[in-house]
Amino acid sequence: MKDGLPPRLARELATITAMIAIYCRDHHQPAGSQLCPQCRELAAYAAKRLAKCPFQQEKPTCGNCTVHCYAPRYRIEVRSVMRYAGPRMVWAHPLMALRHLIDSRRRAPATAGRRPGDPSPRDRNRTKP
To answer: What phi, psi does 70 have (nearest 5°)?
Structure first.
């Protein structure tokens, strides 16, 4: 267990950290291999949110999750990072990208208060009557 996280969450943390590093390198050009202060803050926030994930080992990828645990400001930043770095992960970290692709097939477990078969809040927002 890396940093006290279960293996699944440690892998998710490594993936988001790698994505942030790719984004930072190409957009902020920090000196050396370190992240700029803004990206360091984003990586720390992502680690904190992963540690508090209610699904823990059953966690789906963020795109399939029914719980939005990021504050709106950070959600916008992470979305930009993922859109930019996601396709580049295939070249920079091919095995990590493959595992993330496999993990993206995982669905979120049912949350308390929802019955099986009920649409998730995310699905309800996509359908218009």
So the answer is: -90, 140
DSSP letters of 63-81?
A: GG-S---S-HHHHHHHHHH
Inter-residue contact 45 to 74 (CB < 8 Å): yes
Cα–Cα distance measured from residue 98 to residue 92, given in angstroms and rounded to the nearest whole number: 12
Structure tokens at 92: 């920079």
CA distances in angstroms from 113 to 35, 53, 78, 106, listed in the order given? 40, 17, 28, 21
CA–chain centroid gap for 32, Å, is: 25
| pLDDT digits 0-9 by tens, 42-87 | 999 999 999 988 888 888 887 788 888 899 999 999 999 999 999 9
* CA gap 27, 21 in Å, rounded: 10
| Identity of residue 110 | A
Q: Angle CA(82)–CA(109)–CA(112) in degrees, nearest 5?
A: 115
Question: Token digits for 93?
Answer: 């970290």
State both tokens at 4.
Answer: 């006290």
